[in-house]
Specification:
Elements lengths: L7 H17 L7 H22 L4 H27 L5 H27 L1
Helix pairs in contact: 1-2, 1-4, 2-3, 3-4
């Protein structure tokens, strides 16, 4: 098992990706190559940057964690657009938003712990 696979934030990011794929499969097909694709790529990027960054130096890992956190922010913006377009109801939006907040905090905590090692 790779070290990143033991990280809760990585596991939670994978769960987030799964939820995004399930939700976006219900969105209008006209959004397939725009909002759906963008949200799927941004959510996937969170887990991918955590995984890839873990194989690098501390400084590089911190940079990859910044990228992962940036992808959380990107997801928030896309989710707001989706809510405004009525692809998500308020409850779905809030659940996704809270997950993004949690992932962002976890990534920040991980970045802080990287520098303590």
């Amino acid at each position: 098992m790779f070290a990143f696979e033991r990280l809760n934030v990585y596991s939670d990011a994978l769960d987030f990706v799964d939820r995004v794929y399930i939700s976006t499969s219900q969105w209008p097909k006209t959004e397939l190559y725009s909002l759906i694709d963008q949200l799927r790529r941004a959510s996937t990027s969170i887990a991918l940057n955590i995984a890839e960054g873990s194989s690098r130096t501390k400084k590089d890992f911190a940079h990859f964690l910044d990228l992962a956190r940036g992808s959380c922010f990107e997801c928030v913006a896309i989710l707001a657009i989706a809510k405004n377009r009525k692809y998500l109801n308020e409850k779905e939006y809030q659940l996704f938003y809270e997950t993004c907040e949690t992932l962002s905090r976890m990534i920040s905590g991980l970045k802080h712990s990287v520098y303590e090692r």
